[in-house]
Design goal:
Length: about 80
């Protein structure tokens, strides 16, 4: 069982210096991306439509002193990804 909200089945969210992003435009994906940055991770921010919002998330992560980059990709079908 996780000891706190920053730990899961595989340990700390920021175990390594780099973490794949979530759909970080807004809502839960953005919150996860920012939490990963606060925990010390560099973050890849994925977006499908709203590049402007993704770029804002990247800027917010960079303001926390972490590296971030936005990528346009659909992850709905892993066989095509």
């Amino acid at each position: 069982m996780p000891r706190n909200h920053r730990e899961g089945r595989h340990g700390s969210l920021a175990q390594g210096p780099h973490r794949p992003g979530h759909r970080g435009r807004r809502g839960i994906g953005r919150a996860i991306a920012l939490s990963l940055a606060e925990a010390g991770a560099d973050v890849a921010v994925n977006f499908r439509r709203d590049e402007g919002a993704a770029q804002q998330t990247v800027k917010d992560i960079q303001a926390k002193g972490r590296k971030a980059k936005a990528y346009s990709a659909s992850v709905e079908n892993w066989t095509r990804t």
